Amino acid sequence: MNNIIQKKSNISTAIKLLNLSEIKTLVVLDKNKFIGTITDGDIRRGLLNKITIDDNILKITNKKSITTFSKILNDNFKQKMIKKKIYCVPIITKNKNYLGYHNITEKTQAVLNDDSCFVIMAGGKGKRLLPLTKKIPKPLIKIKNKPMIEIIIKKILKDKFKKIYITTNYMAEKIEKFLKKEKYKSVLSFIRENKPLGTIGSLSKINFNEYNHCIVTNSDILSNFVYSDILKYHKLNNADLTICTYYKKVKSEYGNLTVKGKMISNINEKPTYIQNISIGIYVIKTELIKILKKNKYCDIPDFINLLIKKKKKVMSFPLHENWIDIGNIDNLKIARKKFNKNFE
């Protein structure tokens, strides 16, 4: 069973196993003694608390998870678990020996995406990808014979979203011509910027009346996480804005000095820092889009700071999944070399 993990394992191993597990819950054992469970939420909470993927899994294990002695799953118990949004219940003995688990499924368990839409920001000039972007817009650059934007669209549709807005400016005609295919006809709408409106300004041109939330992504971000996961997290926390974030290790090229007055008290040679970065994917309550001035330039950092100033709930969704920003030539080469179906 690929949902069992031994207590000596690290969080990195747990992430790999969790991605393979159908029930998205790991059972933590000490040989065959039940210790607790680990879910995707436990991992993300750990990352928010600065726990690293090299740490032992006991730092994020839920040792108070619900268990049962019964090998028979009755309907009353099942409904109670569904209400609590618990879909894996380990079966143990009174001595905590692990016997197996109940996989509790619910027909409506999947996140309903009908009140949410997608926006793909595809208007940029892609200057970091020159000279490639002299003749072709960045969203149409190919990874394994498929344009980046089409890979993203297929992933969105696979996740059961039914409406996608594409904002365009640079070489808009080429992007629109490529995507105006019969199979996308009922799904895509194009929002053309007459002038560049920044990394978020074009949302002011979209009528979101039918939708309560929108997921916004850059057209050059490929990842293997499920878009519904961030939407579920956003709704569960009643966030106004949720930002996909990633903890990145950055090694300094220089020695870092601690200076007190004129005296140096310490030197740390080429230290490594942890940066919490935004990867370019967001979920926004659409009612907040009205804050944007129509057809006015606005970048996402300014929008985020404005929401924070207005005391809105701005949250981090920490990623542990693979992702890549194909905004420069080096990353494009990496993507072409390592791309696989996990990003579709």
Describe the protein in words:
The chain has 344 residues and is α/β, with parallel strands linked by helices. The chain has two domains: 4-103, CBS-domain; 116-343, Spore Coat Polysaccharide Biosynthesis Protein SpsA, Chain A. 22% of the residues lie in helices and 29% in strands. It has eight helices and 18 strands. The protein has helices at 11-20, 40-48, 75-83, 148-158, 172-179, 227-236, 300-309, 329-338; strands at residues 4-6, 25-30, 33-39, 88-92, 98-103, 116-122, 142-143, 146-147, 164-168, 188-192, 213-218, 221-223, 241-251, 256-260, 263-268, 272-285, 314-318, 323-325. The strands form six sheets. It has a seven-stranded mixed beta sheet with strand order 10-9-6-11-16-13-17, with helices on both faces. Strands 1-2-3 form a three-stranded mixed beta sheet. A hairpin with a 2-residue loop joins strand 14 (256-260) and strand 15 (263-268). The longest helix is centred in the middle third of the chain and has 11 residues, at 148-158. The radius of gyration is 23 Å and the shape is globular. The two termini are 26 Å apart. The relative contact order is 0.12. The model is unreliable at 107-111 (pLDDT under 50).
